[in-house]
Amino acid sequence: MSEKQVHAGRLQMPRSRGAASGFLLIVLGLWGALIPFVGPYFDFAFTPDNEWAWTAARGWLEVLPGAATVLGGFLLLSSRNRFTAMLGGWLTVFAGAWFVVGRAMAGPLGLGDAGAPVAATEAKGVALELAYFYGLGALIIFLGAIALGRLSVRSARDIRHAQRVATVTEPAASEDVTEIHPAQETPEPRRRSLGGMFGRGDRLAHR
After folding, report:
1. d(CA 111, CA 113)
2. CB atoms within 10 A of CB 15
3. Does residue 91 contact residue 26 with C-beta atoms inside 8 Å?
4. Global pTM exceeds 0.85
5. Over the stretch 126-164, which tens digit does the pLDDT of each residue have?
6. Residue 60, SS3 per DSSP
7. How far apart are CA 176 and CA 191, in angstroms?
8. What Rg value do the Cα atoms of the chain yield, rounded?
9. Quick one: how far is CA 141 from the chain centroid?
Protein backbone atom coordinates (compact mmCIF):
# COMPACT_ATOMS: atom_id res chain seq x y z
CA MET A 1 0.00 0.00 0.00
CA SER A 2 1.46 3.39 -1.00
CA GLU A 3 1.97 6.33 1.33
CA LYS A 4 -0.71 8.27 -0.52
CA GLN A 5 -3.24 5.49 0.03
CA VAL A 6 -2.37 5.31 3.74
CA HIS A 7 -2.93 9.07 4.13
CA ALA A 8 -6.24 8.87 2.25
CA GLY A 9 -7.28 5.92 4.41
CA ARG A 10 -6.83 7.97 7.57
CA LEU A 11 -9.40 10.46 6.30
CA GLN A 12 -11.93 7.77 5.41
CA MET A 13 -14.64 6.84 7.89
CA PRO A 14 -18.02 5.11 7.87
CA ARG A 15 -20.86 7.42 6.94
CA SER A 16 -22.73 6.35 10.05
CA ARG A 17 -20.13 8.04 12.27
CA GLY A 18 -21.87 11.44 12.10
CA ALA A 19 -25.30 10.37 10.89
CA ALA A 20 -27.29 10.70 14.14
CA SER A 21 -25.80 14.07 15.13
CA GLY A 22 -26.11 15.33 11.56
CA PHE A 23 -29.80 14.46 11.36
CA LEU A 24 -30.62 16.12 14.71
CA LEU A 25 -28.66 19.23 13.73
CA ILE A 26 -30.55 19.50 10.45
CA VAL A 27 -33.84 19.38 12.37
CA LEU A 28 -32.66 22.04 14.85
CA GLY A 29 -31.37 24.24 12.04
CA LEU A 30 -34.70 24.08 10.24
CA TRP A 31 -36.46 24.95 13.48
CA GLY A 32 -34.22 27.96 14.11
CA ALA A 33 -34.58 29.29 10.56
CA LEU A 34 -38.35 28.76 10.20
CA ILE A 35 -39.83 29.30 13.66
CA PRO A 36 -39.84 33.13 13.39
CA PHE A 37 -42.13 32.85 10.36
CA VAL A 38 -44.42 30.01 11.42
CA GLY A 39 -44.50 30.62 15.19
CA PRO A 40 -47.34 33.17 14.97
CA TYR A 41 -49.62 30.41 13.62
CA PHE A 42 -49.68 28.79 17.07
CA ASP A 43 -49.14 31.91 19.22
CA PHE A 44 -45.44 31.27 19.81
CA ALA A 45 -43.63 34.29 18.43
CA PHE A 46 -41.51 37.39 18.85
CA THR A 47 -42.63 40.76 17.58
CA PRO A 48 -43.61 41.39 14.88
CA ASP A 49 -45.98 38.47 15.43
CA ASN A 50 -47.13 38.17 11.80
CA GLU A 51 -46.73 35.05 9.72
CA TRP A 52 -43.82 35.17 7.27
CA ALA A 53 -42.84 38.70 8.25
CA TRP A 54 -39.25 39.34 7.15
CA THR A 55 -36.88 41.67 9.00
CA ALA A 56 -33.14 42.19 8.70
CA ALA A 57 -32.68 41.07 12.30
CA ARG A 58 -34.46 37.79 11.62
CA GLY A 59 -32.25 37.22 8.61
CA TRP A 60 -29.02 37.81 10.53
CA LEU A 61 -29.93 36.32 13.90
CA GLU A 62 -32.15 33.37 12.99
CA VAL A 63 -32.19 32.46 9.30
CA LEU A 64 -28.41 32.70 8.83
CA PRO A 65 -27.37 30.53 11.79
CA GLY A 66 -30.24 28.13 11.07
CA ALA A 67 -29.09 27.68 7.47
CA ALA A 68 -25.48 27.21 8.63
CA THR A 69 -26.63 24.54 11.08
CA VAL A 70 -28.52 22.71 8.32
CA LEU A 71 -25.45 22.80 6.06
CA GLY A 72 -23.15 21.56 8.80
CA GLY A 73 -25.57 18.81 9.74
CA PHE A 74 -25.82 17.71 6.12
CA LEU A 75 -22.02 17.47 5.88
CA LEU A 76 -21.97 15.35 9.03
CA LEU A 77 -24.78 13.15 7.76
CA SER A 78 -23.52 12.51 4.25
CA SER A 79 -19.74 12.72 4.28
CA ARG A 80 -17.36 9.74 4.36
CA ASN A 81 -14.38 12.08 4.63
CA ARG A 82 -13.22 12.97 8.15
CA PHE A 83 -12.01 16.47 7.18
CA THR A 84 -15.31 17.40 5.50
CA ALA A 85 -17.33 16.05 8.41
CA MET A 86 -15.24 18.00 10.93
CA LEU A 87 -15.77 21.14 8.87
CA GLY A 88 -19.51 20.54 9.18
CA GLY A 89 -19.16 20.01 12.94
CA TRP A 90 -17.31 23.28 13.46
CA LEU A 91 -19.85 25.09 11.29
CA THR A 92 -22.67 23.94 13.57
CA VAL A 93 -20.74 24.95 16.70
CA PHE A 94 -20.22 28.48 15.38
CA ALA A 95 -23.86 28.68 14.28
CA GLY A 96 -25.02 27.60 17.75
CA ALA A 97 -22.75 30.17 19.37
CA TRP A 98 -24.27 32.86 17.14
CA PHE A 99 -27.77 31.86 18.29
CA VAL A 100 -26.57 32.44 21.88
CA VAL A 101 -24.65 35.73 21.49
CA GLY A 102 -26.31 37.16 18.38
CA ARG A 103 -28.97 39.16 20.19
CA ALA A 104 -26.37 40.86 22.39
CA MET A 105 -24.23 41.67 19.33
CA ALA A 106 -27.09 42.89 17.13
CA GLY A 107 -27.13 46.44 18.57
CA PRO A 108 -23.37 47.18 18.32
CA LEU A 109 -23.18 45.61 14.85
CA GLY A 110 -26.30 47.38 13.59
CA LEU A 111 -28.13 44.18 12.65
CA GLY A 112 -31.53 45.35 13.86
CA ASP A 113 -33.83 44.42 16.72
CA ALA A 114 -34.86 40.78 17.17
CA GLY A 115 -38.11 41.90 18.83
CA ALA A 116 -39.70 41.01 22.13
CA PRO A 117 -41.38 37.73 23.10
CA VAL A 118 -45.16 37.83 22.74
CA ALA A 119 -46.04 36.30 26.10
CA ALA A 120 -48.67 36.98 28.75
CA THR A 121 -46.67 35.21 31.45
CA GLU A 122 -43.04 35.23 32.45
CA ALA A 123 -42.76 31.46 31.99
CA LYS A 124 -43.85 31.70 28.37
CA GLY A 125 -41.39 34.54 27.78
CA VAL A 126 -38.56 32.38 29.10
CA ALA A 127 -39.71 29.47 26.93
CA LEU A 128 -39.65 31.71 23.87
CA GLU A 129 -36.15 32.98 24.67
CA LEU A 130 -34.89 29.41 25.07
CA ALA A 131 -36.67 28.00 22.01
CA TYR A 132 -35.65 30.83 19.69
CA PHE A 133 -32.14 31.67 20.87
CA TYR A 134 -30.34 30.59 24.02
CA GLY A 135 -31.57 27.04 24.55
CA LEU A 136 -31.55 26.29 20.82
CA GLY A 137 -28.00 27.59 20.44
CA ALA A 138 -26.75 25.66 23.48
CA LEU A 139 -28.26 22.41 22.17
CA ILE A 140 -26.69 22.94 18.74
CA ILE A 141 -23.28 23.58 20.34
CA PHE A 142 -23.68 20.43 22.45
CA LEU A 143 -24.49 18.18 19.48
CA GLY A 144 -21.79 19.74 17.33
CA ALA A 145 -19.21 19.21 20.08
CA ILE A 146 -20.26 15.56 20.46
CA ALA A 147 -19.86 15.06 16.72
CA LEU A 148 -16.40 16.65 16.74
CA GLY A 149 -15.38 14.47 19.67
CA ARG A 150 -16.41 11.31 17.85
CA LEU A 151 -14.68 12.40 14.65
CA SER A 152 -11.41 13.14 16.43
CA VAL A 153 -11.10 9.53 17.61
CA ARG A 154 -9.98 6.93 15.08
CA SER A 155 -11.57 3.71 16.20
CA ALA A 156 -10.83 0.13 15.17
CA ARG A 157 -13.94 0.26 12.99
CA ASP A 158 -12.52 3.25 11.12
CA ILE A 159 -9.25 1.38 10.53
CA ARG A 160 -11.10 -1.65 9.14
CA HIS A 161 -13.18 0.61 6.90
CA ALA A 162 -10.06 2.36 5.60
CA GLN A 163 -8.41 -0.98 4.88
CA ARG A 164 -11.45 -2.15 2.93
CA VAL A 165 -11.48 1.06 0.88
CA ALA A 166 -7.75 0.77 0.19
CA THR A 167 -8.15 -2.86 -0.86
CA VAL A 168 -10.93 -1.99 -3.29
CA THR A 169 -9.13 0.99 -4.82
CA GLU A 170 -5.68 -0.62 -5.04
CA PRO A 171 -5.12 -1.95 -8.57
CA ALA A 172 -4.70 -5.70 -8.57
CA ALA A 173 -1.63 -7.18 -10.18
CA SER A 174 -2.35 -8.81 -13.50
CA GLU A 175 -2.22 -12.60 -13.43
CA ASP A 176 -1.96 -12.94 -17.18
CA VAL A 177 1.49 -14.05 -18.28
CA THR A 178 2.50 -13.20 -21.80
CA GLU A 179 4.59 -15.95 -23.27
CA ILE A 180 7.09 -14.83 -25.85
CA HIS A 181 7.86 -17.39 -28.53
CA PRO A 182 10.92 -17.08 -30.72
CA ALA A 183 10.09 -16.22 -34.26
CA GLN A 184 9.88 -19.28 -36.49
CA GLU A 185 12.56 -19.36 -39.06
CA THR A 186 11.38 -20.17 -42.54
CA PRO A 187 13.57 -22.87 -44.02
CA GLU A 188 15.45 -21.61 -46.98
CA PRO A 189 14.79 -23.43 -50.26
CA ARG A 190 17.43 -25.92 -51.15
CA ARG A 191 19.62 -24.75 -53.97
CA ARG A 192 20.72 -27.17 -56.56
CA SER A 193 23.95 -26.78 -58.41
CA LEU A 194 24.16 -26.73 -62.15
CA GLY A 195 25.84 -30.07 -62.08
CA GLY A 196 23.09 -31.57 -60.08
CA MET A 197 20.49 -30.10 -62.40
CA PHE A 198 22.04 -31.70 -65.47
CA GLY A 199 23.64 -34.76 -63.88
CA ARG A 200 20.61 -36.91 -64.42
CA GLY A 201 20.45 -35.97 -68.06
CA ASP A 202 24.13 -36.92 -68.54
CA ARG A 203 23.52 -40.29 -67.02
CA LEU A 204 20.61 -40.87 -69.34
CA ALA A 205 22.72 -39.81 -72.29
CA HIS A 206 25.48 -42.40 -71.61
CA ARG A 207 23.07 -45.25 -71.30
Report:
1. 7
2. 15
3. no
4. no
5. 999 999 999 999 999 999 999 999 888 765 455 554 555
6. helix
7. 44
8. 39
9. 20
